[in-house]
Amino acid sequence: MKFLCFKILVIRFNIELIIFMVRKRNKDMDYRGYTVCEEKNKISIEKIKDIDLNHTFECGQCFRWNKNEDESFTGVVKGRVVNMKFKDNVLIINNSDFEDFKSIWFEYLDLGRDYGDIKQKINKDKVMDEAIKFGHGIRILKQEVKEVLVSFIFSANNRIPRIMKSVEILSDMYGNEIKYDGKIYHSFPDLRSISESELCKMQECKAGFRCKYIIEASKLIEQGIIDMSLLIKMDTDKSRKELMKLPGVGPKVADCILLYSGTKHDVFPTDVWVKRVMEELYFKREATFKEINDFSKEYFGEYAGFAQQYLFYYARENKIGV
DNA sequence: TTGCAGGGGTCAA
DNA sequence: TTGACCCCTGCA
Question: What pTM does this model have?
Fold first, then answer.
């Protein structure tokens, strides 16, 4: 009998120990309005509003996120590989921890911004209402400047799958190796490595005439002739002009660099898709790039970049104007 | 199988 | 304002 009681006590002690260990392992922490649950090499964030990973990663602003069969996305950001899944209003980031959330993901996913408020401010007509409903889960990522610079020089007269391929080859050639889930990935390379590349080597990226632009632009930045860190302090027009001093960077690419690096949000990158949707849904006629830019500046003001993103995604996915 | 047009832009004449 | 640029895809 005594032995049986002792055994029951031991079992109870073990169960309580397990519960204690599990509780200790799954820590809930708060950061700037979000509750982050940290488990082994994984974090879960609840109650993120206005997010849909399909919208955010497939709206044309980034090129290093790949969708998996289970609807999650695996991507390389700032030298790390993570897997993200948004399900039942919980964002799960595998291969990450609370420190990463504070230092990378909060800013990268623009979680400090109230997108509900922005949507309200730009929802001025039926067109925008439709576009916002369609791409309701878009968040504008704050990506590294070097990555958006190179990616959007690649984007000139190009298509998304090819841009993704070129970025991947470039990273494989010059980035650092990262192992995750049995696979090998590569970080986005430093501009120094790119600037020192031979043109013939760079052409392995299959980016054709854009390769020389990328090498030359990287050289200008590495030599300090263009200082990217000063862009945020300049007004938007001046920062655009500064960027356009780089080879391969025209007005559209400059606006993309400013918007997708989180440097300026009052730009309206106008490519053929945005031009088509603006002509068909707003102007009801052909319009010049200048007309479209002037209109967006006046109409959407400081939120022009967000408006552009909803419109672009809406136009491209619905093939408006084709 | 082959050939050709065209594409989410920029540059230079 | 217009043609060239590099490479890939879709189509006949």
Answer: 0.91
